[in-house]
Please model this.
Amino acid sequence: MVCRILLCAAAFWATLPATLPARTWTDRAGNVEDAEFISCQSGKVWLRTDDGRTVEVPLAALCSADQEFVREQVKQEEARLAAETTQAGGEFEYGAPRKLAEIASPAVSESSGLAVSRRHEGLFWTHNDSGDDPRLYLFDRQGRDLGWCELEGVQAFDWEDLAGFSYQGKSYLLVCDVGNNGRSAGVHMMYLVEEPGEPPPVAEGRTIPIVETIHFAYEDDFRNCEAVAVDPTDRTILLVSKELGRPAAVYSLAWPPTDAEKPARACRIGELRLPAVTAIDVSADGRRAIVLTYAHAYEYIREPGQSWAEAFASKPRQIKMPERVQGESICYGRDGKTLYLTSEKRPAPLWEVAPRGE
Model:
């Protein structure tokens, strides 16, 4: 059996549109397993065994020949992505990533969602992935800890993304409890809260009330999702599923739901041939959507009069992201152009990717 040790720091990734024929894999200890290659991302290789199990193996745990095989698949996938994406587009180009700080709060160990504050310049909100209390953490561009607040009367099962937006003069945060690794849950929750408005730092332990709880289900299947965004211009919530070895599904959910008594329906509007998607955000003007993977990001531009389904069917531009241990969060800044991203694990860095020349 191929051993399953913890994540190593290798930076290879790939996702193929279909699995390759089964082959024999060998780890450094000489254990073997017949399995299909599914994907390699952030130093982890996923294989599917003959009995249908999905096995996760660190790339560094495989023998040299298997590592070389994986690298070759990565090269082929990078070539495909290069052919299906563009390096330019829109009215500006992005410059090189710049590390601003590391998040100082010791409580932030798995920064899984990120949103820029609409009320205070230069501040950000984040939350942990799973295993934490239902808390939102505030920090600034220097990474300084500005306190935390807790959502009132809810639990944090698998918080995966955080969307910030303004609507009718108010600033909101949408907390997305949408993780579903085992694909066993049919109904998911998102919690809408008003962004706290008192001057920072936030008083630790303060509770903030839930404005609205959104229960929803996908129209076609059970899905695992780590990417949720809000387009306030047409009151649409966008969700992208996280897939291994197959295209990601894109869903649209009307906000607010028309019937609060039953789960809202997330309707499928397209698919993305990208590596495992870990985050998404929409610019405040509703023109651009940035989709993040463990490696790089891909920006889709919605032309005037286009629907999001039409925009996601177009060729995105690839935006180079810095190497992270496990990058699962991204957001646009208040200018609607500059990108910010963090990573799970500590120390969690705060990166900025600004338009060139700004």
Observations:
- The longest helix spans residues 64-84.
- The chain has two helices and 26 strands.
